[in-house]
Write the structure tokens for this entry.
Amino acid sequence: MNLERATLFGFQALVAKVNGNTRSNSEVKMYLKDTDIYAAQSNPYRRMAASMYQTKNENDFFHLHGCLSPTATLNMIGLDGYRDDLTEHKDIHNAIQSRVHKFTATELEHLNQSVEHAGVMVYTHEKFKDSPHGRANIQQPWWKCLRLPGSSPPTHFPVLGTRRILKGIRVLELTCIITDPVIGRILAEYGADVLRITSSSVPDVPFFQVNGNMGKCTVDIDLKTPDGRQHFEELLSDADVLIDGFRPGGIVYVDENCFGHEGEWCDRPGWQQIADCLTGFARSYGEFLGRSEPIVSPLPIADYGAGCMGAITASIGLYNRAQNGGSHHGKVSLMQFNLLLFAVAFFDLRYSDGVDRSSRLALEMLQEKFPWLFISRSILGAEEHTETWYSHHFGADVEVVRPVVDIDGVENTFRRASRPNGADLLDSWGNMFEERKEGM
């Protein structure tokens, strides 16, 4: 395992580049497909509906999360969905903070659940472990792969004797943002044909597609229409793995969420920041930095960690299906990855900084303190930590982190350049995944 690439793995979305531009460069937008259809990312006021705020009790904090459509969250605390008069970070924070400060954390929990958005009060790890949800999950395994009811004969791997150990495995991916696309990205790295299905009517973060869609084909299907469902069912009939979405029979199904799969909150929506606040990670991170307030990690570590666990459960399910037949259900969560970090133990940001600002500052600090992670290694005669492909769909060079693990006798490399969501024409598995030499 390459330790330096493993370090970069935890925040590779921030390292990715299009034509030399990272997410922090405004010029990158000209290459991206605009999937931020509700301006949850591009409007700074609406973006700050996903941040941590102090409640009526000064020792209690609540992490709002407007997801990718923040109007309901802003309305919940008495604010309009859009405020064209608020454009500066400080003014936006003060406007939202003044409203959140009128509520206790418990009141915000009740309000948040009524609008069914992500959001959670900030727990210490001890308080989380003592909660009903914590007690239901603290002894659960980090991930599960369970055999589903019913029987079917063993389904052997389609291609034997190849260094690309998942060659011929077909993966349908119904995903967004970071965690779930990481599962498919890793499976593609080992040779699987991964088809990511998105809908132009469902929002997604544009830049995360640069890194998350490496090695995949991407199509647009509206599952709410009869034609869309028919196309999906045709693809599903020949698939081996389904990441999220529906749970059919005779398949390896990988299910990722935020709050875990046991306990009273298992159906609540959530994101990496929510898992950090729930499990006590944000409190512990603040203490580590010498602060009395919680601080959400500026890097999406839990997203990539849970994505890696999802790829593990998919691989276990495929192996068990080949050996014993049947269908298998992999279960992973952001919460369980954070609990794994607590079990391993522990080795000048303010809580009011949003994730975009804090991640940019963290990346700048990493580049200053650990420049060897980011400089070209060719001058040292060593293999680069990143690789560059020309993407016809982005119309530019795309730079991403190379695979982390090197397994003797196994080839884990990408065969396709990244692309935006919905870039490929919908066709049969064979036609969409025919071998191409160019960086399509």
Q: What stands out?
A: Confidence is low (pLDDT under 50) at residues 245-249. The two ends are 28 Å apart (CA to CA). The longest strand covers residues 193-198. Residues 301-324 form the longest helix (24 residues).
